[in-house]
Amino acid sequence: MTGWAKGARYVAAVLAIGLAAGCASKSDESLNLEAMQASEIFALGEREMKRDPRKGDGGKYFAEVERLYPYSEWSKRALVMQAYAFHQQKKYEEARSAAQRYLDQYPGEEDSAWAQYLLAISYYDQIDDIGKDQGLTFQALQALRVVIEEYPDSEYARSATLKFDLAFDHLAGKEMEIGRYYLRRGHYTAAINRFRVVVEQFQTTSHTPEALHRLVESYLALGLTGEAQTAGAILGHNFRGSPFYDDSYRLLTGRGLSPVAEGQGWLQTVYRRTIQGKWL
């Protein structure tokens, strides 16, 4: 059970429907929240979430429950719903704050996995633009890892794993973007440094074949044929069906070279480990 359905289970159906209907007839300005019971304010939050989860005032009402009835069972329930409501409204900082307060105040409680997941996706949902600050991506990865490792049997673990892989791929994509920028401008050493990061640290991502091909291009431009051949050898062994291998093969053979491991250096280490299985 996730999202709105998760939150709705906190209030008995009859109570929620009755209170929401009664309060709905009043304007928000006329409500004296301080004179209301925690359950009544909570029901107002539920009403708002049902009415429009992205634009309603659900988070505001859940925050009032926490303020007016601290340390109560209703406050605990409202806190995680506050995180959910703010996330739905794309108020990511407020969502993270509420989720973290829940985790700090109620560690090990039933909704800890949900709170941690809300914390993680409040970072994750801000990294869709590859040009943004990668600090958010690192924070999303850290928070998603907690879901995966500390709540492996929760209903959120699978989604967290998928998002972790996508965020990891995103970081590799950023390195590729910068590397291609340097390559286009003839800054080959700077480009190589970026592509190396992808090959060594993000080798499980979808960007590795292109990174190896760009290394072939960069090393050939610098006249470092041994390194270019070794990059081509790794590319051909692991990604022979990739169009990037075809491009690298044509570049190498066009200069009378072949994709075989030559010379020394960091690519030889990668070759020994990934192709020959030699770690020492």
Tag the structure with descriptive keywords.
280 residues; mainly alpha; Serine Threonine Protein Phosphatase 5, Tetratricopeptide repeat; 2 domains; BamD; lipoprotein
Q: How would you sum up this structure, described in words?
A:
- By secondary structure, the chain is mostly helical.
- It has two domains: 1-125, Serine Threonine Protein Phosphatase 5, Tetratricopeptide repeat, CATH 1.25.40.10; 171-280, Serine Threonine Protein Phosphatase 5, Tetratricopeptide repeat.
- 69% of the residues lie in helices and 0% in strands.
- It has helices spanning 3-8, 13-24, 38-51, 58-68, 73-88, 92-105, 112-124, 135-150, 157-184, 188-201, 208-222, 225-238, 243-253, 266-274.
- 39% of the residues are buried.
- Residues 7-27 have low confidence and may be disordered.
